[in-house]
Amino acid sequence: MLKNYFKTGWRYLLRHRLLSFLHVLCLTIGITFTLVVGIYVLGQYRINHSLRNIDDQYIIKSRWKSEGFGLDITTLGPLAKTLREEYPSLVADYYRYNPVTNVVSAGDKHFVEDVAIGDTSFIRMYGFPVSFGNADQPFPNNHSAVITESMALKLFGKKNAVDETISVHSTVQGDKQVYQVSAVIADIPYNSVTNLVGGDNYSVFVPTEGNLYFGFEDPAAGWNNPFEIGMIQLQPGVTPADLTIPCQQVLAKYTPENIQQNLTIELASVKDYYLNDNGGAARRMVAILSLSALFILLMAIINFVNISVVTSSQRLKEIGLRKVFGGAKQQLIIQFLGEALFLTALAALLSFPLYQLLRPVFNTILNTQLDSVLHFGWTVYAGMALLVLVTGLLAGIYPAFRLSSSPVTKAVKGRLDTAVGNFTLRKTMLTVQFTLGIALSIGTLIVSRQVNYIFSKDIGYRKDQVMVITAFPKQWDAAGVKQMMGVKQALTELAAVESASLSFEVPDGQPPNAFGMQQASGDGSEAMIYSIGVDQDYARTYGMTLLAGTCFAQSGGYIPNQVVLNESAVAALGLTPETAIHKKLRQIAGGTDVTIAGVVKDYHYSSLQEQIKPVAFFHVQDFLSYRFLSLKLRGSNVAESIKLVKQEWQKLLPDAPFEFTFMDDQFAALYQSELQLKRAADVATTLNFLIIALGIFGIVSFTLAKRTKEIAVRKVLGAELRHLTLLIVKDYTRLIIIANLIAWPLTYWVANKWLEGYSYRIGQGVGEYLLVCLLVFVLAYGLIIGLCVQANRANPVDSLRDE
């Protein structure tokens, strides 16, 4: 029985090679894209799941009523430890770390590395595998360090680096802390513990107790430090709500009143933190990609059903004869469902090599590393089997039940009209297909316009050919700043360098802290203003517009206790750029009064998702800390300029690694998710139009093939090509108009919700909607006209003579 089913189905597929090819091609496209998205989504959901006791792990986040007191991702230094010590029945463990970047050395090897100055509990708490050393006591003392295998290879050329010596540069003049490697752990996969800040993955872990990186012991010890990353593991069965009152009690016991009134402690689950971080950007990306894959797969299924229904007349006589000879309805259903499942399985098999072939392309598009087919686990294959089953049943269930239910007398005569009705379902599915395609295409155009707007908008500074060097050594005192200013001056004298600036921040994110300021005279209002340490050449190097005054008396050198404000800060203080110059400002929390030296035009120091906030620039010689040297390069030969700068850097600072980026790249990194979404949407739209085109081609070509005699008679009676074309076009015209009427309001609502995430965004116009409508009409009409022209070329005599 099964052998006969297979023979019958195989012969039918071979007899209709073109339609079978279209079936398989559409399904292969849909399944391949679904496989790509499925592997990507699975990888996104797996992030953090390798951590031990993941259901009980939480990040302590801070909600400040007044902006600028601290970051939401950090907390008070001693908080996590205190919660564990005073509420052991609620908190099982804790881990805190201070993320820093500095030079790690071993002998004559020096590398800039991300160093976590933290508690010694992180291996025990998260279960990171120890490759070498004592897993039960990875930190035997405060002078021991744990490094990753990759770091061990970089420093010592071997993975087993236990008992080797490393040193970590500090921010104090000439000071290095020497550590003995006590354990080596396996390289840590991306997670929300060691990649929490800026995506950095830490390779060196040293104890916080007794640490002198900032010139004083234990950076996590002070309640006045709101910039410590704190994490806790709750006892089994304990929920974050159970910590609400204990957190309030700890703050009341150890912190001053202004912190108690401003700070609310929140616990964020590590398990799904990656998906929910950054306003849920990753979760939105996953949702949009999943919907796109669902749309494309659904359109492929619609093509399958539509072509099957249109071609069903050729099988009606077969069905009628099989019923006459005793064939049961159940057997016919199995036959048609089996054929649909066979085609779907064939498409799924073809999707594996196609996935492997396109994997590098999608790795670039999604900025990820998709698993190779060779590394798929049983869950992927089980998912594919389920996908084949569901897709095959959805694709074949209607043709199977509809055709098998046709009356014997009508089926034997091949009466299509009575067998499948008036094609209401086919028209409905075509409308759904056009609606999905139109909505996806309009959405892609809107995303592209917003991304183009981001990269073309005047952001208030010039980022082209600005080279950002990480400034080492980090000696955060007057002597260190003076030394680095000397390095800056030497680099400025190079012919390849137009200008240079030493600063603590560059325009790649919101400054970390702010404080209250007001006019010293008491006029105007108080304002929370973010602070940045820069030098007198910062505005010139970044091409900022000076509205009034100077950037720290740029022509006359450094003058102590001066400040430069942006427009927003001036407005927040109740001043104008013209009236602000030489005004004195007082810090609300106390401190030296400062004089306004200049006002710069507002610039976007972070992404366009955030409003521009008040910013104050303090001179680095007052700020006494720095992190970056920004160089504005001359000429078009950037490679040669980099070579010259590197040579001079190594001459001036032979022990300091030369590491740099360009502001163009850092700016693009701010919009990584938008760029990924744009590229993925472009691919989805292309596949969407391809599937629509294949569906139209299959249905129209078969329809014309079935109407060859009608076309021949019309030609004999004087009908022209335009009459034939109108016969086919009119049905599609109605469907496309209906699809636009459905897609436009839905797309407008969804796109508006997405755009609301940006403080600076495009407005939705009718242009994208009309353009997509026109493109769909052009695509449909072009295919129909082409096929009609081909059909019209046939000799009517041959068609009428053929029986």
Automatic annotation (TrEMBL):
Principal subcellular localization: membrane
ABC3 transporter permease C-terminal domain span: 292-407, 687-788
Protein name, entry field: FtsX-like permease family protein
Subcellular location: Cell membrane
Domain of life according to the entry: Bacteria
Entries under InterPro entries matching the protein: ABC3_permease_C, MacB_PCD, Macrolide_Exporter_MacB
Annotated GO CC locations: plasma membrane
Transmembrane segments: 21-43, 285-311, 332-358, 378-401, 430-448, 687-705, 732-749, 769-789
Keywords: Cell membrane, Membrane, Transmembrane, Transmembrane helix
Residues covered by the MacB-like periplasmic core domain: 20-241, 435-634
Membrane topology, record value: Multi-pass membrane protein
Organism whose genome encodes this protein: Parapedobacter indicus
An example molecular function term from Gene Ontology annotations: transmembrane transporter activity
